[in-house]
Amino acid sequence: MNHHKIDSLLDAERIKAHLSSASQAQLRELTVLQETDSTNTFVTRLPAGRRHAHAVVAESQTSGRGRRQRSWHSPAGGNIYLSLGWRFAVQSTALSCLPLVTALCVCRALERTGLRGHGIKWPNDILVDGAKLAGILVETQAVGSGPALAVIGIGLNVRMPVSDSGHLAAIIDRPWTDLASQLPAERRDVCRNEIAALLLEELLLGLASFEDRGFAVFHGEWQARDLLTGKRLRLEGNGGFRYGRAIGVEDDGGLAVDIEGYGPQVLYAAEVSIHDD
Ligand code: BTN
């Protein structure tokens, strides 16, 4: 797991050079930071007029945030922490599928790096062989009853700096992996500027089709990437556990589960893990 190959630092001009002209036209601003508290928080602090289509990428985060009040380990030296502000013409309630759409866009970008076999654990964890490769944190702010601003945050482990793996295991409490360890040998030197551009490009394309046509157009692809359907799950919520079998994802992004002792239900906020035996 040692990747001593030196990658270039993240650089706005290099990222832009890897973007298609359509994506360059869609993206209004790209800010690259050495360090920030959280790229998601950074976007929310921008003046209101500069949040839409503004991407922020950082080498490190001092308070990287994950879902469910978790922190996201964000050391300098090899990963990607990226956020994109996006103003939707619809109300924030219509955006329940955005985390799932984002996960599909990340999967497409990863496929273009040469990765195979990655999948999604609902709603938006990207896993390879049960280990987490990327996490997504989508935060939406409703502006009155008008359009919603979403901040779409992606944390992708590319080359996790491993100074002391015991130490790291204490910080990250579940199995994780990084892209460099999962790619075929000849692709392992892929540079982060190119990966950041792939992520942005797929995100910009995906957002456009989501705005036009909704989640329905992503449903088939979701099924191909979904790691849960048919699996027995452990569901955590309201201070207790339940078990059930995943049925699939609904058009509104909810997870349908046949819960033991309760029957089919659609979940929106549960913490799920695979519990096959
Ligand atoms: C999770 O799996 O819990 C979500 C992790 C999301 C991490 C990314 S890194 C870029 C952006 N800024 C943050 O503070 N969090 C997201």
Core attributes:
alpha+beta, 2 domains, 5-stranded antiparallel sheet, 277 residues, 7-stranded mixed sheet, BirA Bifunctional Protein, domain 2, binds biotin, 8 helices, single chain, SH3 type barrels
- Work out the count of structural domains: 2
How are strands sequenced across the largest beta sheet?
1-2-3-7-6-5-4
Tally of extended strands?
Answer: 12
State the share of residues found in helices, binned by percent: 25-40%
Backbone shape: globular
Total DSSP helices: 8
Question: How many angstroms separate the termini?
Answer: 30 Å
C-alpha-based Rg, rounded: 18 Å
Low-confidence spans: none
Mean pLDDT over the full residue set: 92
Query: What series of H and E elements makes up the topology?
Result: HHEHEEHEEEEHHHHEEEEE
Q: Class of the largest domain, according to the CATH hierarchy?
A: Alpha Beta
Q: List each distinct ligand once.
A: biotin
Summing up helix and strand content along with how strands pair, one would put the structural category as alpha+beta
Main sheet characteristics = 7 strands, mixed
Q: Approximately how much beta-strand content do the residues carry?
A: 25-35%
What is the CATH third-level topology name of the largest domain?
BirA Bifunctional Protein, domain 2
